[in-house]
Amino acid sequence: MSTSATNSYQPATEFDPIVIDSFKAYDIRGELGVNLDEHIAYRIGRAFAQILFQRYQASIASQACDDMENLQSAIVIGSDIRHSSEPLKQAAIKGMIDAGVDVIDLGMTGTEEVYFATSHYHALGGIEVTASHNPINYNGLKLVKEHSKPISADDGLAEIQALAESGQFINDNQSGKLQLLTDKNAYIKHVMTFIDMDKLKPLTLVINSGNGSAGPVVDLLIDRLIQAGAPLEAITLHHTPDGSFPNGIPNPMIEANRLTTQQAVLENNADLGIAFDGDFDRCFLFDENGEFIDGSYIVGMLAQAFLNKYPNEAIVYDPRVIYNTEAVIADHNGKAVISKSGHSFIKQVMRESGAVYGGEMSAHHYFRDFFYCDSGMIPWLLTIELLSITGKTLSELVTGYIQAYPSSGELNFHLTTHDATTIISAIEEKFSIQNPSKSTLDGLSLNFGEWRFNLRASNTEPLIRLNIESRGDEQLLATKTQEIQQWLALQGAIPA
Predict the structure, then answer these.
(1) Domains and CATH numbers, the chain
(2) For the chain, does the N or the C end have fewer beta carbons within 10 angstroms?
Protein backbone atom coordinates (compact mmCIF):
# COMPACT_ATOMS: atom_id res chain seq x y z
CA MET A 1 0.00 0.00 0.00
CA SER A 2 1.31 3.44 -0.89
CA THR A 3 -0.51 6.61 -0.01
CA SER A 4 0.04 10.08 1.30
CA ALA A 5 0.02 10.59 5.05
CA THR A 6 -0.56 13.42 7.46
CA ASN A 7 1.02 14.29 10.77
CA SER A 8 -0.80 16.15 13.51
CA TYR A 9 1.90 16.51 16.14
CA GLN A 10 2.70 20.15 16.93
CA PRO A 11 6.14 20.80 18.44
CA ALA A 12 7.22 23.66 20.61
CA THR A 13 8.48 26.74 18.79
CA GLU A 14 11.38 27.36 21.16
CA PHE A 15 13.94 24.77 22.21
CA ASP A 16 15.59 25.27 25.59
CA PRO A 17 18.45 22.95 26.51
CA ILE A 18 17.27 19.81 28.28
CA VAL A 19 18.78 16.56 29.57
CA ILE A 20 17.67 13.38 27.80
CA ASP A 21 18.83 10.42 29.87
CA SER A 22 17.05 7.73 27.86
CA PHE A 23 20.04 7.20 25.55
CA LYS A 24 21.68 3.81 26.13
CA ALA A 25 24.70 2.03 24.63
CA TYR A 26 22.87 0.86 21.49
CA ASP A 27 19.49 2.60 21.44
CA ILE A 28 17.08 4.85 23.29
CA ARG A 29 14.90 3.42 26.04
CA GLY A 30 13.00 5.25 28.75
CA GLU A 31 10.05 5.42 31.10
CA LEU A 32 7.07 7.24 29.63
CA GLY A 33 6.51 10.65 31.15
CA VAL A 34 9.83 10.46 32.99
CA ASN A 35 12.60 10.45 30.39
CA LEU A 36 10.67 9.81 27.19
CA ASP A 37 7.64 11.60 25.75
CA GLU A 38 6.46 13.07 22.46
CA HIS A 39 8.51 16.27 22.87
CA ILE A 40 11.68 14.26 23.43
CA ALA A 41 10.82 11.98 20.49
CA TYR A 42 10.41 15.06 18.29
CA ARG A 43 13.85 16.37 19.28
CA ILE A 44 15.46 12.97 18.73
CA GLY A 45 13.82 12.60 15.31
CA ARG A 46 14.91 16.07 14.27
CA ALA A 47 18.47 15.61 15.51
CA PHE A 48 18.73 12.19 13.86
CA ALA A 49 17.52 13.50 10.50
CA GLN A 50 19.67 16.63 10.60
CA ILE A 51 22.87 14.74 11.37
CA LEU A 52 22.25 11.99 8.80
CA PHE A 53 21.32 14.51 6.11
CA GLN A 54 24.41 16.63 6.82
CA ARG A 55 26.63 13.56 6.57
CA TYR A 56 24.94 12.62 3.31
CA GLN A 57 25.43 16.10 1.83
CA ALA A 58 29.07 16.24 2.92
CA SER A 59 29.80 12.81 1.48
CA ILE A 60 28.19 13.57 -1.87
CA ALA A 61 29.93 16.95 -2.11
CA SER A 62 33.34 15.45 -1.42
CA GLN A 63 32.68 12.19 -3.28
CA ALA A 64 34.19 10.55 -0.22
CA CYS A 65 31.95 7.53 0.02
CA ASP A 66 30.60 5.44 -2.85
CA ASP A 67 28.11 3.87 -0.44
CA MET A 68 26.23 7.18 -0.30
CA GLU A 69 25.79 7.68 -4.03
CA ASN A 70 22.65 5.61 -4.51
CA LEU A 71 20.84 6.74 -1.38
CA GLN A 72 17.70 8.84 -1.37
CA SER A 73 17.39 11.60 1.19
CA ALA A 74 14.66 9.85 3.16
CA ILE A 75 14.35 8.03 6.47
CA VAL A 76 12.05 5.09 7.15
CA ILE A 77 10.17 4.67 10.42
CA GLY A 78 7.92 2.04 11.94
CA SER A 79 6.48 1.29 15.37
CA ASP A 80 5.36 -1.68 17.42
CA ILE A 81 1.89 -2.23 18.85
CA ARG A 82 2.28 -0.40 22.18
CA HIS A 83 -0.35 2.28 22.65
CA SER A 84 2.39 4.86 23.22
CA SER A 85 4.32 3.93 20.06
CA GLU A 86 2.14 5.64 17.46
CA PRO A 87 2.17 9.07 19.22
CA LEU A 88 5.93 8.82 19.71
CA LYS A 89 6.35 7.85 16.06
CA GLN A 90 4.27 10.79 14.87
CA ALA A 91 6.35 13.16 16.99
CA ALA A 92 9.60 11.75 15.58
CA ILE A 93 8.18 12.02 12.05
CA LYS A 94 7.39 15.69 12.60
CA GLY A 95 10.93 16.26 13.80
CA MET A 96 12.40 14.64 10.70
CA ILE A 97 10.08 16.55 8.37
CA ASP A 98 11.00 19.80 10.09
CA ALA A 99 14.65 18.90 9.48
CA GLY A 100 13.86 18.95 5.77
CA VAL A 101 14.11 15.20 5.27
CA ASP A 102 11.50 13.02 3.56
CA VAL A 103 9.97 10.27 5.69
CA ILE A 104 8.56 6.87 4.77
CA ASP A 105 6.11 5.65 7.39
CA LEU A 106 5.97 1.84 7.38
CA GLY A 107 3.04 1.61 9.79
CA MET A 108 3.10 -1.08 12.47
CA THR A 109 6.29 -3.08 12.14
CA GLY A 110 8.80 -5.27 13.86
CA THR A 111 12.34 -3.99 14.15
CA GLU A 112 13.62 -6.18 11.34
CA GLU A 113 11.12 -4.64 8.93
CA VAL A 114 12.82 -1.29 9.51
CA TYR A 115 16.21 -2.91 8.91
CA PHE A 116 14.93 -4.34 5.65
CA ALA A 117 13.21 -1.14 4.50
CA THR A 118 16.26 1.02 5.23
CA SER A 119 18.28 -0.95 2.70
CA HIS A 120 15.42 -1.77 0.34
CA TYR A 121 14.46 1.90 -0.09
CA HIS A 122 18.10 3.06 -0.07
CA ALA A 123 17.26 5.35 2.84
CA LEU A 124 19.60 7.48 4.92
CA GLY A 125 18.50 5.59 8.01
CA GLY A 126 15.65 4.05 9.91
CA ILE A 127 13.84 4.20 13.24
CA GLU A 128 11.76 1.57 15.02
CA VAL A 129 9.71 2.87 17.95
CA THR A 130 9.66 -0.03 20.41
CA ALA A 131 10.44 -1.05 23.96
CA SER A 132 10.65 -4.73 22.96
CA HIS A 133 10.13 -6.75 26.15
CA ASN A 134 10.29 -3.89 28.67
CA PRO A 135 7.34 -3.07 30.99
CA ILE A 136 4.28 -1.40 29.49
CA ASN A 137 5.21 2.03 30.90
CA TYR A 138 8.42 2.07 28.83
CA ASN A 139 9.17 2.74 25.20
CA GLY A 140 12.14 3.60 23.02
CA LEU A 141 13.68 4.12 19.60
CA LYS A 142 16.10 1.86 17.73
CA LEU A 143 18.14 3.73 15.13
CA VAL A 144 20.13 2.60 12.11
CA LYS A 145 21.98 4.56 9.46
CA GLU A 146 22.52 3.88 5.75
CA HIS A 147 22.58 0.24 4.60
CA SER A 148 21.00 -0.71 7.93
CA LYS A 149 24.26 -0.17 9.81
CA PRO A 150 23.91 0.19 13.58
CA ILE A 151 24.43 3.45 15.43
CA SER A 152 26.14 3.14 18.79
CA ALA A 153 27.21 5.55 21.52
CA ASP A 154 30.67 5.98 19.99
CA ASP A 155 29.43 6.10 16.40
CA GLY A 156 26.82 8.83 16.18
CA LEU A 157 24.40 8.18 19.03
CA ALA A 158 26.19 10.58 21.38
CA GLU A 159 26.18 13.26 18.65
CA ILE A 160 22.42 12.78 18.17
CA GLN A 161 21.88 13.03 21.92
CA ALA A 162 23.93 16.23 22.18
CA LEU A 163 22.00 17.94 19.37
CA ALA A 164 18.63 16.78 20.70
CA GLU A 165 19.50 18.11 24.16
CA SER A 166 20.82 21.44 22.93
CA GLY A 167 17.88 22.12 20.59
CA GLN A 168 20.22 23.98 18.24
CA PHE A 169 18.52 22.77 15.08
CA ILE A 170 19.07 24.22 11.62
CA ASN A 171 15.97 26.09 10.46
CA ASP A 172 15.97 26.75 6.71
CA ASN A 173 12.17 26.58 6.32
CA GLN A 174 12.50 23.47 4.16
CA SER A 175 10.05 20.72 5.03
CA GLY A 176 10.32 17.09 4.09
CA LYS A 177 7.50 15.03 2.63
CA LEU A 178 5.70 12.16 4.32
CA GLN A 179 4.72 8.98 2.54
CA LEU A 180 2.92 5.92 3.94
CA LEU A 181 4.25 2.61 2.57
CA THR A 182 2.83 -0.35 4.48
CA ASP A 183 3.14 -3.09 1.86
CA LYS A 184 5.19 -5.96 3.32
CA ASN A 185 5.49 -8.04 0.14
CA ALA A 186 9.12 -7.18 -0.65
CA TYR A 187 10.16 -7.96 2.93
CA ILE A 188 8.25 -11.26 2.94
CA LYS A 189 9.73 -12.25 -0.42
CA HIS A 190 13.26 -11.55 0.84
CA VAL A 191 12.80 -13.51 4.06
CA MET A 192 11.51 -16.49 2.09
CA THR A 193 14.76 -16.66 0.08
CA PHE A 194 16.50 -18.19 3.09
CA ILE A 195 14.83 -21.58 2.65
CA ASP A 196 13.94 -24.04 -0.10
CA MET A 197 10.18 -24.50 0.23
CA ASP A 198 10.24 -27.63 -1.94
CA LYS A 199 12.15 -29.45 0.81
CA LEU A 200 9.55 -28.85 3.54
CA LYS A 201 7.85 -31.93 5.01
CA PRO A 202 4.57 -32.08 7.00
CA LEU A 203 4.99 -30.20 10.27
CA THR A 204 2.68 -28.83 12.95
CA LEU A 205 3.79 -25.52 14.41
CA VAL A 206 2.65 -23.66 17.52
CA ILE A 207 3.35 -19.94 17.13
CA ASN A 208 2.94 -17.53 20.06
CA SER A 209 3.13 -13.88 18.98
CA GLY A 210 2.51 -12.59 22.51
CA ASN A 211 -0.03 -10.02 21.24
CA GLY A 212 2.98 -8.14 19.86
CA SER A 213 3.74 -7.05 16.32
CA ALA A 214 4.58 -10.50 14.94
CA GLY A 215 1.08 -11.73 14.09
CA PRO A 216 0.56 -10.02 10.71
CA VAL A 217 4.00 -11.08 9.47
CA VAL A 218 3.46 -14.66 10.64
CA ASP A 219 0.18 -14.73 8.70
CA LEU A 220 1.88 -13.53 5.52
CA LEU A 221 4.70 -16.07 5.83
CA ILE A 222 2.39 -18.98 6.57
CA ASP A 223 0.12 -17.98 3.67
CA ARG A 224 3.11 -17.83 1.33
CA LEU A 225 4.33 -21.23 2.51
CA ILE A 226 0.96 -22.91 2.12
CA GLN A 227 0.34 -21.31 -1.29
CA ALA A 228 3.66 -22.80 -2.39
CA GLY A 229 2.44 -26.23 -1.30
CA ALA A 230 4.27 -26.52 2.02
CA PRO A 231 2.43 -29.14 4.15
CA LEU A 232 2.29 -27.09 7.32
CA GLU A 233 -0.29 -26.62 10.03
CA ALA A 234 0.09 -23.47 12.15
CA ILE A 235 -1.63 -23.12 15.52
CA THR A 236 -1.46 -19.51 16.67
CA LEU A 237 -1.56 -18.21 20.24
CA HIS A 238 -2.01 -14.64 21.49
CA HIS A 239 -1.91 -13.78 17.83
CA THR A 240 -3.83 -10.50 17.59
CA PRO A 241 -1.66 -7.41 18.12
CA ASP A 242 -2.86 -5.66 21.28
CA GLY A 243 -0.90 -2.84 22.90
CA SER A 244 -2.49 -3.50 26.28
CA PHE A 245 -0.80 -6.94 26.29
CA PRO A 246 -3.72 -8.83 27.87
CA ASN A 247 -1.56 -11.93 28.31
CA GLY A 248 1.44 -10.09 29.72
CA ILE A 249 4.47 -8.42 28.16
CA PRO A 250 5.82 -10.79 25.49
CA ASN A 251 9.14 -11.92 26.91
CA PRO A 252 9.83 -15.67 26.60
CA MET A 253 13.08 -15.25 28.54
CA ILE A 254 10.85 -15.29 31.65
CA GLU A 255 10.12 -18.93 32.48
CA ALA A 256 6.51 -18.26 33.51
CA ASN A 257 5.82 -16.82 30.06
CA ARG A 258 6.77 -20.10 28.36
CA LEU A 259 4.00 -22.23 29.88
CA THR A 260 1.28 -21.38 27.32
CA THR A 261 3.51 -22.30 24.39
CA GLN A 262 4.75 -25.47 26.08
CA GLN A 263 1.23 -26.68 26.85
CA ALA A 264 0.02 -25.96 23.32
CA VAL A 265 2.91 -27.95 21.83
CA LEU A 266 1.99 -30.96 23.94
CA GLU A 267 -1.78 -30.66 23.48
CA ASN A 268 -1.47 -30.42 19.69
CA ASN A 269 1.34 -32.96 19.31
CA ALA A 270 3.27 -30.23 17.51
CA ASP A 271 6.71 -30.59 16.00
CA LEU A 272 7.91 -27.14 17.03
CA GLY A 273 6.98 -24.27 19.30
CA ILE A 274 7.88 -20.69 18.35
CA ALA A 275 7.55 -17.55 20.46
CA PHE A 276 8.51 -13.91 19.95
CA ASP A 277 9.13 -10.79 21.98
CA GLY A 278 7.20 -7.59 21.28
CA ASP A 279 9.11 -6.38 18.21
CA PHE A 280 9.99 -9.95 17.10
CA ASP A 281 13.69 -9.34 16.65
CA ARG A 282 14.21 -12.43 18.82
CA CYS A 283 12.91 -15.93 18.17
CA PHE A 284 12.54 -18.57 20.89
CA LEU A 285 12.13 -22.27 20.11
CA PHE A 286 10.51 -25.22 21.92
CA ASP A 287 11.04 -28.83 20.90
CA GLU A 288 8.33 -31.44 20.28
CA ASN A 289 8.27 -32.22 24.02
CA GLY A 290 7.53 -28.61 24.89
CA GLU A 291 11.06 -28.09 26.21
CA PHE A 292 12.48 -24.59 25.84
CA ILE A 293 15.80 -24.71 23.97
CA ASP A 294 18.46 -22.35 25.30
CA GLY A 295 19.59 -19.85 22.68
CA SER A 296 23.24 -20.94 22.79
CA TYR A 297 22.31 -24.37 21.39
CA ILE A 298 20.22 -22.78 18.65
CA VAL A 299 23.34 -20.81 17.67
CA GLY A 300 25.23 -24.07 17.30
CA MET A 301 22.41 -25.68 15.32
CA LEU A 302 22.13 -22.76 12.88
CA ALA A 303 25.92 -22.49 12.59
CA GLN A 304 25.99 -26.15 11.49
CA ALA A 305 23.15 -25.57 9.03
CA PHE A 306 24.93 -22.61 7.43
CA LEU A 307 28.29 -24.36 7.28
CA ASN A 308 26.62 -27.30 5.53
CA LYS A 309 25.36 -24.86 2.90
CA TYR A 310 28.39 -22.55 2.85
CA PRO A 311 31.59 -24.46 3.69
CA ASN A 312 34.54 -22.68 5.31
CA GLU A 313 32.57 -19.51 6.05
CA ALA A 314 32.98 -17.42 9.20
CA ILE A 315 30.53 -17.65 12.09
CA VAL A 316 30.34 -14.91 14.73
CA TYR A 317 29.29 -15.62 18.31
CA ASP A 318 29.39 -13.85 21.67
CA PRO A 319 31.60 -14.83 24.65
CA ARG A 320 28.94 -15.74 27.20
CA VAL A 321 28.63 -19.44 26.24
CA ILE A 322 31.15 -20.74 23.71
CA TYR A 323 32.08 -24.43 24.10
CA ASN A 324 29.33 -25.86 21.91
CA THR A 325 29.47 -23.19 19.22
CA GLU A 326 33.25 -23.43 18.89
CA ALA A 327 33.07 -27.23 18.68
CA VAL A 328 30.41 -27.11 15.94
CA ILE A 329 32.41 -24.57 13.93
CA ALA A 330 35.60 -26.64 14.25
CA ASP A 331 33.83 -29.90 13.34
CA HIS A 332 32.41 -28.29 10.19
CA ASN A 333 35.57 -26.48 9.10
CA GLY A 334 34.20 -23.01 9.68
CA LYS A 335 36.01 -19.93 10.89
CA ALA A 336 35.23 -19.01 14.50
CA VAL A 337 35.04 -15.27 15.15
CA ILE A 338 34.19 -14.11 18.67
CA SER A 339 32.62 -10.71 19.31
CA LYS A 340 31.52 -8.66 22.27
CA SER A 341 27.80 -9.22 22.83
CA GLY A 342 25.34 -6.59 21.66
CA HIS A 343 23.92 -6.02 18.20
CA SER A 344 26.19 -3.14 17.18
CA PHE A 345 29.32 -5.17 18.00
CA ILE A 346 28.09 -8.40 16.37
CA LYS A 347 27.06 -6.58 13.19
CA GLN A 348 30.36 -4.74 12.92
CA VAL A 349 32.42 -7.91 13.40
CA MET A 350 30.25 -9.74 10.87
CA ARG A 351 30.81 -7.01 8.29
CA GLU A 352 34.56 -7.04 8.94
CA SER A 353 34.82 -10.83 8.68
CA GLY A 354 32.14 -11.33 6.01
CA ALA A 355 30.49 -13.90 8.28
CA VAL A 356 27.50 -15.72 6.85
CA TYR A 357 25.80 -15.98 10.25
CA GLY A 358 26.13 -14.62 13.77
CA GLY A 359 24.28 -15.63 16.90
CA GLU A 360 23.87 -14.65 20.52
CA MET A 361 22.54 -16.83 23.30
CA SER A 362 19.96 -14.09 23.95
CA ALA A 363 18.09 -15.35 20.83
CA HIS A 364 19.36 -12.66 18.48
CA HIS A 365 20.37 -14.19 15.14
CA TYR A 366 22.15 -12.20 12.41
CA PHE A 367 22.44 -12.97 8.70
CA ARG A 368 24.81 -11.68 6.04
CA ASP A 369 22.05 -11.84 3.45
CA PHE A 370 19.76 -9.80 5.69
CA PHE A 371 22.09 -6.79 5.63
CA TYR A 372 24.06 -8.28 8.56
CA CYS A 373 21.01 -7.61 10.74
CA ASP A 374 19.07 -9.71 13.21
CA SER A 375 15.76 -11.32 12.38
CA GLY A 376 13.25 -13.24 14.46
CA MET A 377 11.46 -14.73 11.45
CA ILE A 378 14.39 -16.26 9.58
CA PRO A 379 15.48 -18.62 12.43
CA TRP A 380 12.20 -20.53 12.65
CA LEU A 381 12.02 -20.81 8.86
CA LEU A 382 15.54 -22.26 8.83
CA THR A 383 14.54 -24.62 11.63
CA ILE A 384 11.54 -26.07 9.79
CA GLU A 385 13.75 -26.55 6.75
CA LEU A 386 16.34 -28.33 8.91
CA LEU A 387 13.70 -30.57 10.50
CA SER A 388 12.45 -31.45 7.02
CA ILE A 389 15.87 -32.13 5.48
CA THR A 390 17.25 -34.20 8.35
CA GLY A 391 14.03 -35.99 9.29
CA LYS A 392 15.00 -35.42 12.91
CA THR A 393 13.05 -33.79 15.71
CA LEU A 394 14.36 -30.61 17.31
CA SER A 395 15.25 -32.52 20.46
CA GLU A 396 17.29 -34.97 18.39
CA LEU A 397 19.11 -32.07 16.73
CA VAL A 398 20.12 -30.38 19.99
CA THR A 399 20.32 -33.14 22.64
CA GLY A 400 23.87 -34.02 21.64
CA TYR A 401 24.90 -30.39 22.05
CA ILE A 402 23.27 -30.13 25.48
CA GLN A 403 24.85 -33.35 26.77
CA ALA A 404 28.31 -32.52 25.43
CA TYR A 405 28.34 -28.96 26.75
CA PRO A 406 25.79 -28.39 29.56
CA SER A 407 25.34 -24.81 30.70
CA SER A 408 23.62 -22.96 33.51
CA GLY A 409 21.62 -20.64 31.30
CA GLU A 410 21.93 -16.94 32.00
CA LEU A 411 21.56 -16.12 35.70
CA ASN A 412 20.79 -12.50 36.60
CA PHE A 413 21.54 -10.70 39.84
CA HIS A 414 20.58 -7.32 41.30
CA LEU A 415 23.49 -5.48 42.93
CA THR A 416 22.79 -4.15 46.42
CA THR A 417 26.25 -3.52 47.95
CA HIS A 418 28.98 -3.29 45.32
CA ASP A 419 29.01 -2.15 41.71
CA ALA A 420 29.66 -4.53 38.81
CA THR A 421 33.28 -3.46 38.35
CA THR A 422 34.09 -4.20 41.98
CA ILE A 423 32.48 -7.62 41.88
CA ILE A 424 34.16 -8.60 38.61
CA SER A 425 37.56 -7.57 39.96
CA ALA A 426 36.96 -9.51 43.18
CA ILE A 427 35.94 -12.73 41.44
CA GLU A 428 38.97 -12.53 39.17
CA GLU A 429 41.18 -12.31 42.25
CA LYS A 430 39.29 -15.19 43.91
CA PHE A 431 40.04 -17.58 41.04
CA SER A 432 43.50 -16.27 40.09
CA ILE A 433 45.24 -18.99 42.13
CA GLN A 434 43.84 -21.58 39.69
CA ASN A 435 45.56 -19.78 36.79
CA PRO A 436 42.65 -19.90 34.31
CA SER A 437 42.85 -18.41 30.84
CA LYS A 438 41.24 -14.98 30.90
CA SER A 439 39.35 -12.75 28.49
CA THR A 440 37.96 -9.29 29.15
CA LEU A 441 36.35 -8.91 25.74
CA ASP A 442 32.95 -8.66 27.41
CA GLY A 443 32.96 -8.57 31.19
CA LEU A 444 35.20 -11.32 32.55
CA SER A 445 35.58 -14.82 31.10
CA LEU A 446 37.68 -17.36 33.00
CA ASN A 447 38.33 -20.75 31.37
CA PHE A 448 39.58 -23.63 33.53
CA GLY A 449 39.70 -26.22 30.75
CA GLU A 450 36.82 -28.45 31.82
CA TRP A 451 34.56 -25.54 32.79
CA ARG A 452 34.35 -21.79 32.36
CA PHE A 453 32.22 -18.81 33.29
CA ASN A 454 31.44 -15.34 32.01
CA LEU A 455 30.35 -12.55 34.34
CA ARG A 456 29.31 -9.22 32.84
CA ALA A 457 27.26 -6.15 33.57
CA SER A 458 24.05 -5.76 31.58
CA ASN A 459 24.14 -3.05 28.91
CA THR A 460 20.43 -2.32 29.27
CA GLU A 461 19.41 -3.11 32.87
CA PRO A 462 20.91 -2.64 36.39
CA LEU A 463 21.96 -6.28 36.58
CA ILE A 464 25.02 -8.47 36.51
CA ARG A 465 24.73 -11.61 34.35
CA LEU A 466 26.42 -14.98 34.94
CA ASN A 467 26.86 -17.91 32.55
CA ILE A 468 28.64 -21.15 33.44
CA GLU A 469 29.33 -24.16 31.23
CA SER A 470 31.27 -27.43 31.37
CA ARG A 471 32.57 -30.06 29.02
CA GLY A 472 30.08 -32.87 29.50
CA ASP A 473 30.12 -32.81 33.31
CA GLU A 474 26.75 -31.83 34.76
CA GLN A 475 27.87 -32.46 38.35
CA LEU A 476 30.84 -30.13 37.91
CA LEU A 477 28.50 -27.54 36.37
CA ALA A 478 26.10 -27.79 39.33
CA THR A 479 28.92 -27.55 41.86
CA LYS A 480 30.51 -24.49 40.28
CA THR A 481 27.15 -22.79 39.74
CA GLN A 482 26.29 -23.20 43.42
CA GLU A 483 29.75 -22.04 44.48
CA ILE A 484 29.66 -18.84 42.45
CA GLN A 485 26.04 -18.06 43.36
CA GLN A 486 26.91 -18.37 47.06
CA TRP A 487 29.93 -16.14 46.59
CA LEU A 488 27.86 -13.53 44.75
CA ALA A 489 25.31 -13.55 47.57
CA LEU A 490 28.09 -12.62 50.00
CA GLN A 491 28.87 -9.66 47.74
CA GLY A 492 25.24 -8.48 47.92
CA ALA A 493 24.21 -9.82 44.49
CA ILE A 494 20.59 -11.00 44.80
CA PRO A 495 19.00 -13.30 42.18
CA ALA A 496 16.74 -11.27 39.91
Answers:
(1) 2-183 (3.40.120.10), 203-292 (3.40.120.10), 293-405 (3.40.120.10), 411-495 (3.30.310.50)
(2) N
